[in-house]
């Protein structure tokens, strides 16, 4: 079972997924690209989930409990001290990015916390107090792209220019603004479809040319048909 709530860390969400035994033929819900990065607590380890360009599927084997904090697009690289493009489509031990002794101390604190999600929030808040904030221009870009604004419009609003916006987007999001816009459009459409709109209505409201365009993006980014994805339980 999956649950989430807004985090006390600005713009973030904390979540947990309890292990669930799957029946034969019961597919695991894929982790879809969303422009975000997560810090996970998994089997007593701190793991960074980099930005995805395609669906990530849990590894085979017994299901495990996992908790995480999902940072808003462009937020995590400043906290981690690593450009997002270096973590693209990867799951990396935090100890590979930070000194191992430091990560062990953080892991002990999370183990001692009443709820691992609270421990992850405290870790993020403490780290944010010691680091510069995320680039406000890139935060604005992510917000406007999530609203469906065109990349050229966003480049003009930020005053960065197309090339500079692309270069800085690689560091902040892991990919350029056009890819981020495509991913965020898919997320908008799926949210609308799950909220009760028909696939055609969701496609139109999210900015797709038509329902087949929506379906192609689902196949490209999720590796499933639209019907298959909507039938799965997150």
Question: What do you see in this structure?
Answer:
Helix 2 (100-112) crosses helix 3, helix 4 (136-146) packs antiparallel against helix 5 (151-158) and helix 7 packs across helix 9 (211-222). This protein has 234 residues and is of the alpha+beta class. The chain has two domains: 2-129, Jelly Rolls (Sandwich), CATH 2.60.120; 136-231, Homeodomain-like (Arc Repressor Mutant, subunit A), CATH 1.10.10.60. The radius of gyration is 18 Å and the shape is globular. It is 46% helix and 13% strand.
Brief write-up:
By secondary structure, the chain is an alpha+beta fold.
What integer value in Å does the Rg equal?
Answer: 18 Å
Give the overall average pLDDT: 92
Distance between the termini: 8 Å
CATH topology of the largest domain: Jelly Rolls
| Counted beta strands | 6
Q: Flag low-confidence runs.
A: 22-26
Question: At CATH's second level, what is the architecture of the largest domain?
Answer: Sandwich
- Please identify the structural class as seen in this structure: alpha+beta
Query: Helical percent range?
Result: 40-55%
Pfam families: DUF6597, HTH_18
Domain HTH araC/xylS-type: 135-232
Protein name: AraC-type DNA-binding protein
Keywords: DNA-binding, Transcription, Transcription regulation
